[in-house]
Amino acid sequence: MDGEKSVQSDDGTRCAFFYGTLMAPEVFYRVCYNSSDIPDAIKSLHKFIPAVLHGYSRHKISHADYPGMRENPEGQVRGILATGLTRANVEHLDWFEGSQYERRTVQVKVLVEAGDLKTGEGNVEGEEKEAEAYVFLDGKSLKEEEWDYAEFRKEKLRYWSRGGHEWPDVDVDDAVDEDDAVDDAVDDAVDDAVDDAVDDAVEEAKGAAV
Q1: Which are the contacts of 65, defined by CB distance < 8 A and separation ≥ 6?
Q2: How many Å apart are CA 168 and CA 159, to the nearest integer?
Q3: Start and end of every Gamma-glutamylcyclotransferase AIG2-like domain (predicted)?
Q4: Apex CA 84: angle with CA 81 and CA 87, to 5°?
Q5: Quick one: pLDDT at residue 177?
Q6: Dihedral of CA 89/93/99/102: which sign?
Q7: pLDDT digits (tens, 9 = 90+) for 98-128
Q8: What's the pLDDT band for 27 if we cut at 50, 70, 90?
């Protein structure tokens, strides 16, 4: 899938704006790490922040569970800003989205307060962030009807977050090896766990000696 060069944060990671199935962390983890049940050390590397993208609109796609987004000067799309994406994460997301979408650089507004998911009523917008988003290319396949995230979670999420779909050949260990930041986080988590175990053992030994 052709797209613009990835936008990197100061720490070398990337941000993306998700507005469809990937708004569900369960789907994101399944795509990027081939599992919905991943270690807390990996989860801590990503944040999912409510955000709004202006100048676009989101629509249902004929015969599909997922939506498409197209430019619309009067539109706005409620989604999430996902942080901490590695190069490997972006490669898997590109594979997942496929040739139907183009990855573009966009400017999103982080929501200080998140209002109604459909109408946007009650939204309080904060700072602007640069991110990447996947824009649908085949406008003829888009319906006028708005895609409903709440409906997706209720009716379809269980099919998208389990092992029945074929994702890229990747596992958590491979993903960890590809990124130093992940390595450091895992090492810290292991060290903390070992320290806690040693402390508990020492306390038990002291108690037994009394």
Answers
A1: 21, 152, 156, 159, 160
A2: 17
A3: 17-148
A4: 110
A5: 45
A6: negative
A7: 999 999 999 999 999 888 877 778 889 999 9
A8: very high
Using DSSP, state whether 38 is helix, strand or coil: coil
CB-CB neighbours of 190 under 10 Å: 12
Q: How many CB atoms lie within 10 A of CB 150?
A: 9
One-letter amino acid of 204: E
User: Which DSSP helix (H) or strand (E) runs through 191?
Assistant: helix 180-209
Amino acid making up residue 209: A
Per-domain boundaries in the chain: 14-209
Please give the CATH architecture assigned to the domain spanning 14-209. Answer: Roll (3.10)
What pLDDT score was predicted for residue 7? 58
The 3-state DSSP class for residue 166 equals coil
Q: Which H/E stretch holds residue 183?
A: helix 180-209
Q: Rounded to an integer, what distance in angstroms lies between the CA atom of residue 69 and that of residue 60?
A: 9
Q: Give mean pLDDT, residues 76-104.
A: 96
99/95 Cα distance (integer angstroms)? 9
Helices (H), 34-171: 40-43, 87-97, 149-155, 157-160
